[in-house]
Amino acid sequence: MDGSALARIAAIIFVAVAITAAVVQMSREEEGPVVGPGPLAAPAADPLRAEQRRCQELGEAAASNPDCLAVWAETRDRFLGRDTGADQAGGE
Length: 92
Known about the structure:
Largest sheet: none
Number of strands: 0
Order of helices and strands: HHHH
Strand content: under 5%
Structural class: mainly alpha
Distance between the termini: 94 Å
Helix content: 55-70%
């Protein structure tokens, strides 16, 4: 092969690679702007949560404390989705 044939082959290969790269670039979907997470909302003060903390600090003594037993019953009922007596008396 002479030099002009090699130059033509090289030019054809270069054009084919350029066209392929252009098609690939055009077929990509553009990503929208990156949205960061919004500010976290502070949860409302939960008196049950405060009582749970107090009972936690009591340690083993909480097992015989009637207030802590009531707090644990309320916590269990909330977790299980049960209606409690306080909710029913609230006018539902």
